[in-house]
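writing this on my phone so excuse typos. first protein, seq and then structure
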Amino acid sequence: MSSFPACPECGSEYTYDDGIQYVCPECGHEWSKDAVATTEAVKVIKDANGNPLADGDTVSVIKDLKIKGSSSVVKVGTKVKNIRLVEGDHDIDCKIDGVGAMKLKSEFVKKV
């Protein structure tokens, strides 16, 4: 594990030092070492496979999810379009066809 900071754009942990700046090999983002000291830590929300998620992404459910207070279930493979990331334990806010608005944990979805 490197001691370099994670990429501020995609959250990749595989950054490397290139003279006076850091470089991310996954997204190609470059930033100065001085910028690291001034930026606040940004929480990157990742799916079950470790891919970073962003607002507007489409994800797929990887496990049957029981809906609390109902006998309904969100089945494996259900695609959820246009997600919105929020703070909290359930970090994805979305609308699922046939179910309605609900919050999901990012550990139970994968990016499509």
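second protein below, same order as before
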Amino acid sequence: MNKKDLRNKYKALRLELNGEKIEDLSIDVANRMLQLPIWEKSYYHLFLPIEKQKEINTEYLLHILQGKDKNVIVSKSNFKDNTLEHILLTDNTVLKSNAWGIPEPVDGIPIPEEKIEVVFVPLLAFDKNGNRVGYGKGFYDKFLEKCNADTLKIGLSFFESEQEIVDVLPTDISLDICVTPLKTYYFKN
């Protein structure tokens, strides 16, 4: 399936999820995350969910990271050039939703991409090869391109994988792992 069709399919599937189902599935994903051998790292980039898009509630994952005393980095979007600025999340970080409903830090301590060891990647769909479909603006591909080669890229999805995304571009950065409520997928990159 191509990216456009996958976006339409998975946006529609998300619309069918009610608040209780989103919470249950988000907890399942967070619990499955605990089984991964990734917790020895220090710097974790976490996306904050766009509620109107019915994204995975990453609050549960945030609690795990904070409970393990990890450095959590969140992003601020620049829609002029579709890039992200990365900010350390602290007790003093003020979050405010932007015009697209994305919770973002107002300001804070910037963290360079090279320091980030694990990135939790938002997505609409993914395939058995670790390719992902996002909203199509390329924010995460540009971000992941700047990360170290050994930075772990972990997708979070409510839904299981597609067989293949047919229109993958050379600039698309694939995942190392994707976690769903029912399964953890590992990809060779």
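The chain has one domain: 3-186. thats all i got for now
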